[in-house]
Amino acid sequence: MKVKACRHSRLPFHDIHEECGIFGIFNHPEAANLTYLGLYALQHRGQEGAGICSSDGKTLFIEKAIGLVADIFSEKRLKRLPGNCAVGHNRYSTAGGGGLKNVQPLLANYSLGSIAIAHNGNLVNAEQMKEQLETEGAIFQSTSDSEVVLHLIARAKSDDPYERITEALRKVSGAFSLLFLRESELIAVRDPHGVRPLSIGRIDGTYVVASETCAFDLIGAEYIRDIEPGEMVVINHNGLRSIKALQSAKKAFCIFEFIYFARPDSYIFNNTCVNTIRKELGRQLARESLVDADIVIPVPDSGVPAAIGFAEEGKIPFDFGLIRNHYIGRTFIEPKQSIRHFGVKIKLNPVRDLLQDKRIVVVDDSIVRGTTSKKIVKMLREVGGAKEVHMRICSPPTVGPCFYGIDTPTRQELIASSHLAEEIKKYITADSLSYLSLEGLKGMVPDPGDYCTACFDNNYPIMFPKESLEQMELLFT
Ligand code: AMP
User: Fold this and answer.
1) What is the total count of domains within the chain?
2) How many CB atoms lie within 10 A of CB 96?
3) Would you say the C-alpha torsion 16, 104, 178, 173 has a positive or negative sign?
4) Does 313 sit in the ligand 1 pocket, CB within 6 Å?
5) Which residue puts its alpha carbon closest to atom 13 of ligand 1?
6) What local confidence, expressed as pLDDT, does residue 431 receive?
7) Which one of 27, 59, 397, 403 counts the least CB within 10 Å of its CB?
8) Tens digit of pLDDT for each residue in 35-69?
């Protein structure tokens, strides 16, 4: 998480852009190569930059850069990462960047040796901890909240490395799925609420840890289990040891991982298939808001499983009425005046033959600001020739920003925080608009009480420090 001055105020504020993917492996002759593949599978969790830190048992080596995993890691670069253990990190693309200094893993030396950290999530008290540490003389290299954890570890008193990490993590709150690499061990920790996913797998008699199981599939590893909320798992030459490091708290798995963020082929939060949940969300949406239509189309890729579920349940033909260009680079230059609505056209294009004069149901995972839906509806009518466009969203209205690691804008920018569905329907110029109900969403996930649904009901499970709350009120109400 980056700390910056918010444009609405001169108060320092946590920029909310920290969706990330992490991967770690212990005692494998191809540690760096497999970490590279793991990060490649987790690329959807972050595209700004990536890094790998490896260990040969004595020394830690690090390579990181801005860009996509496959562009950063050449064979030559991977050869500069010797050793049998490694951790890797994909960082989410932020509007303002953040630069190389924030690309993880972050590597530091302290009194017990070297340690690298790879973090997925957001700490809600990072700003306060950072201020306190700076007052005490700490010098920060990055503007990332994860560095706070390294400083706290360095300052902790115990000679026991696990107790040090535990002591540090007891001082922070928020969402953290963490990997640490030491000279001869890999340590994984998940916050007491288990906000972000983190799973353990097995390959060639050793262990791997990853944000999502799609990383295991690519390297041929077998899923074993999730790291439990509050659990620390130490993997070294003595095997795998589980430590109950952090006090139990109410589980708060991020429900948005199921809706949008995780890959559909992954199994997260106690081995639940993301694709299956998304399809069920689509089915439930159809039960709640079916409409007479000729065709159901998804907004690819995130709307695909839900649209299939919707079409199956509603007994309406399904097809790919919008084609997505998968090769859009981050540096694409948009022409200024000449081509209107270029933003969405560069990504999506309608198949006129399927849509001409049809009544269309378009299924997407969420509406954030409303810009995408508005452009899609317009494009389906003007280019696709649609007769009617019915927008169906397989999540409830997004009314609250996420402080735990999903990239959402401020409350004012979330269209549903200040507008009713009927008003949003008019804004996006759809013939009808329906969202999935919160009850409907909860009814489709196992153990519904175990989820954070703050973005849909403003029910924030992890409290901010008092000072931050005041900031939040200033900034968001
Ligand atoms: P908007 O145009 O702001 O309403 O954005 C809605 C689109 O953004 C939908 O098509 C979603 O699939 C996508 N989306 C939702 N959440 C996120 C996120 N955290 N990061 C990037 N895209 C998102």
Assistant:
1) 2
2) 9
3) negative
4) no
5) 366
6) 98
7) 59
8) 999 999 999 999 999 999 999 999 999 999 999 99
Q: What's the pLDDT tens digit per position in 79-110?
A: 999 999 999 999 985 543 568 999 999 999 99
Q: Residue 470 — very low, low, confident or very high, per pLDDT cuts 50/70/90?
A: low
Q: Is 321 exposed, middle or buried (0-12, 13-18, 19+ CB in 10 A)?
A: buried
Q: Do residues 111 and 155 share a domain?
A: yes
C-beta of 18 in contact with ligand 1 (< 6 A): no
**Residue-range definition of the domain harbouring residue 206:** 15-249
- Bridge partners (DSSP) listed for residue 20: 91
Region of 23 on the Ramachandran plot (φ > 0 left; ψ -120 to 50 alpha; else beta): beta
Q: Are 243 and 289 within one domain?
A: no
pLDDT in tens, 226-285: 999 999 999 999 999 999 999 989 999 999 999 999 999 999 999 999 999 999 999 999
Same domain, 174 and 227: yes
7 part of a folded domain: no
Q: What percent of the chain has pLDDT over 90?
A: 83
- State if pTM tops 0.85: yes
Identify how many contiguous H helices and E strands the chain contains and give both numbers: 18, 25
Ligand 1 mean position to 341 CA, how many Å? 17
Residue 90 belongs to domain with CATH number: 3.60.20.10
Please identify, by atom number, the ligand 1 atom nearest to the C-alpha of residue 367. Answer: 4
Statement to judge: residues 331 and 413 lie in one domain: yes
Tell how far the Cα of 370 is from the centroid of ligand 1, in angstroms: 9
**pLDDT given at position 346:** 85
Decide if 4 is inside a domain: no
Task: Compute the distance from residue 414 Cα to the ligand 1 centre, in Å.
Answer: 11
The CATH number that applies at residue 366 is: 3.40.50.2020
List the beta bridge partners of residue 236: 239
Q: Determine if ligand 1 sits within 6 Å of the CB of residue 359.
A: no
Q: Which residues are catalytic?
A: 20
Query: Which residue(s) pair with 12 in the sheet?
Result: 5
pLDDT at 349 over 70: yes
